[in-house]
Automatic annotation (TrEMBL):
One of its GO terms (cellular component) is membrane. This is NADH-ubiquinone oxidoreductase chain G. It is found in: Membrane. Residues 1-79 form the 2Fe-2S ferredoxin-type domain. It comes from Citrifermentans bremense.
Amino acid sequence: MVNLTINGTQVAVEKDATIYDAAKACGIKIPILCHDKKLHPFGGCRMCLVEVEQMKGRLIPACTTPVTEGMIVQTTTDEIVKARKLVLELLLLKHPIDCPVCDAAGDCDLQNLTFEYKVNTNRFVDEKFNHEIDYDNPLIERDMNRCIHCGKCARICDEIVSYGAYTFINRGIEAKMGTEFDGPLNCEFCGSCVSVCPVGALNSRPFKFKARWWALQKTKSVCSYCGTGCQLTLGTKDGKVLTTVYDENQGFHNGQLCTRGRFGYQFVNSAKRLTTPLVKKNGKLQEASWEEALEVVTSRLSAGKSDPASVAALATPRLTNEELFLFEKLFRGTIGTDNIDHSAGYAHAALTKGAKASFGVAASPSEIADIQKSNLLLVVKSDAYETHPVIGFEMNLGVKRKGIDLRIVSDKKGKLTRLPGAKTTVHTPGSEVALFNALCKSIIDQGLAAEGVAGLAELKAAVADATAEKAGVTAEEIAALAKDYAAAEKALIILPIGLGYPGHDAALANAAANLAILTGKIGKEGCGLLIMGEKNNSQGAADLGIYPKSTGLSASAIIEGCGNGNIKTLFVAGENPVVSYPNRQKVEKALENVEFMVVADLFLTETAQLADVVLPACSFAEKSGTFTSLGRRVQMVRKAVPAVGLAKSDFEILNTLSAAIGGARYNNQAEIFTEIASTVPAYQGLTQGKLGDEGVVLPVTVSAKLVPAVAKAVAPVAGKLALLTGSALYHSGTMSRFGEGPMYVCPTAYAELSMADAASLKIAEGDMVTVTSATGSVQVAAKVGKRVPQGTVFAPYHFGEGSVNSITDGAAVTYVTVAKK
Ligand code: SF4
Ligand code: SF4
Ligand code: SF4
Ligand code: FES
């Protein structure tokens, strides 16, 4: 520790602290403009000038000056105040004083400091900037006339987002924060730069002129897209969500969000929201009252009690824990059916079956915090950035700031593979399990297994015939990766799972877990396996048992059951199987065939259109409850706006139905949380009050065990391309299609080809192509790039038109032909 004195107060801080950090630690405020705790110090604005006695009265920037033992610092002498006023005068010289029409007014550091330092005149005169304003995209407005050259946007985009969209261009008075060739912004549109801009130079366009900042009501909640569980603050007014408000102190991610979190909230206000129940009459869905709709559903579910095997229920892991608990209680408890599931079955099997078998618990043994504590990250699939972008930020920070070794095993390249020092092993599609088995065999063969690992002999026998060739990589690559992984003091395996990844199943979780267990990299900080559930509450759905537990049908078997008439009543809460489950034609036929289907959803989705009763449900912003993130953090979701139209939360819907058919009735969702805490072991002792703003990470007791995993053979088909499905960077499931941000950046389905395949098929970027498999064909636009290796084609699964599930059937890899339309 280093001891120093600031304004007469003694303070002791870590030796790598700056004067600014030390002052903050003892509650002394030093004004800043270019400094941000998340970014490397810049020292550009000189607003934080202080005086250090040992430096003979020279004024120095507090944000870049490290503390030294015995330092005596003054932060508010007359001379310092004079210097800061001068800084403000110089900044205001070029800055347009257009606060009345600036969206940052009230939340502008320059405005606040000008007020605080009473800079009401300017001794200097100069012309204002006359830069053209960039209105090119509908998400971020760039008005460089207001820019104060703090450089924060460029630093965050480079250091955290790793995109590098900005740089200073020109010199001296002509200097400007510019983009590539000074053109319009064309990037990931995560909005991180907007969040840190201290003035109104970068603005959120969806929020423009919607409300003054100070008139917003601010509600802390949790993002409802992916499993990362980013905390966010919803800015609302007149019952509408108008923006997400940046709070640098929120969450492990310091308030940073991705495109979905920052600009995807508009689905809450979408004009396409369902506002009233619909009941099918004469073959057509027609508006109905809640009484009428619930009466139909109640009588159907009541009848189902006498034949529970004919009833099935599918829930989206976007519901709150309380809603999922009630869902389970209603269908498994009151009706007595075990036919309940979520996400097609395979999408969560890595947790419910894989982790359960390998670790004795249906959860990751690791947390998000382990990423930065690790020495080596082994990521399965380059898409981890696309599926969980803020985890991508964490990995990026670990790699750049802590020198974490980043290894990726993937069937294609992506943003992660471009991070500095990242080494990617590109394997053949569908061979992930074979690759991990080969790594385990190599560890054993090289004598790198930890001592005394139980079950080693069985695993050795099980992987005896595993070869690098089966995964399409060289023996040298496998041997080197195995050696590096074993040598790392701490190594963490990261495995994204979700509807787009049929191959990321229980066997893959076992195979990856085996590698960690075999090398003793389990149960330690910075080690283990982080299974990244696709949806905001994928972990909660696993914790609350939303999957068949004994003889019940899994999601795909439920669809079969609807098709063959065994399932007569299907309740769907928020799932959209028509677009997101494999084999669209089969799913549509089955859902058309089922005697009675009720869908509770926010939108009239492709699935809801086939229902007999549609119930309008609330979004996350219209209800309270909890979500559990992929790192097992349980966090509060708080109601920020009233329900749209006549929509009700899934809690209200399920609670009413439960009471009507003789099940439990709760007074509020918090009451259910109390019951969860007394019946679900991991949640024991929790109360919603204890969660606070930060949430609570659930404890996990791991009982690690080697579980041999069988690698399914994937035989390439001559003359065909291997179709890989997954997530587009800006989307999550099918809900993001109703968010302005994600839809601007990625509005339609596409098929991404390698340059070599595109050339031989005479396909150019943007051409419409027909992708044909054994089960059907779709027409989508082509993308051509370097990410996809020759012989493969990638398509995201989120879109209803040109939906990729029209040509897949749930196999890890589907073989297709691609031809120009
Ligand atoms: S929106 Fe994100 S990717 Fe685009 S410039 Fe800003 S920080 Fe960079
Ligand atoms: S645009 Fe904003 S964040 Fe970027 S340099 Fe200018 S003032 Fe700073
Ligand atoms: S989508 Fe995921 S990564 Fe993006 S803000 Fe939401 S929780 Fe965070
Ligand atoms: S905040 Fe220290 S120089 Fe800008």
